[in-house]
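Data availability (excerpt). The following record was deposited with the supplementary files.
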Amino acid sequence: MPTLEELRIRLDEVDEQMVRLFEERMSICEEVGEYKVKNGRKVLDRQRERDKLQDVAGMVATDFNKKAVQELYDQLMSMSRKLQYQQLVKAGALGRLPFSGVSSLDDKNARIVFPGTEGAYSQAATKNYFGEDCNNFYVRTFRDALEHYHEEEPKGECVIVIEGKPLEELRKEQISRWEEMEIQEHLAFYTDQGMDRKEAMKAVARDRGITKRDVYQQLL
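Predicted structure:
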């Protein structure tokens, strides 16, 4: 009969093979994620996962191992989804508003243009944000601003908002993108990142603009 130390050596050898195969599996999952990003495919495929769990259970002999291997593959597929969700977020294809935040503005050397007139709320907002002594002037339209800089060459960088959308419209677009995803997949997006189910349901409700009760009922 082998000694305990000999058995542990054999386990270590098996573990080394499993880790190598795990890395190979995750590398393939990354390629799958890239394909899904490019082709607009969903991350969560519940039927595929059910079939996989059934297949692996059929590859082992005992009832204990059937349950164990299903638990193992359930975790493996969860990690695969987490990786693919990260790829979707990085590609800007999931739950992202169409603008980027910046940490600060160079307001010390800027000339601030605001729409309206002297004493308008827009001027008050400009001074509230940039300070009472900020260099500012008003225009009735941004066409006036363009004409102004035809006569006076701007110094440094100049940013002009040509067209924008109200926050409410952007919010509706964001909700619409989430609603394209099945609610089970939406929940998995958060739970796969380590969020507990209760908090994940709150996040789903917030994303979709519905109540947590509505989320619960749709998951039944």
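Summary of structural features: The beta strands are 111-115, 135-139.
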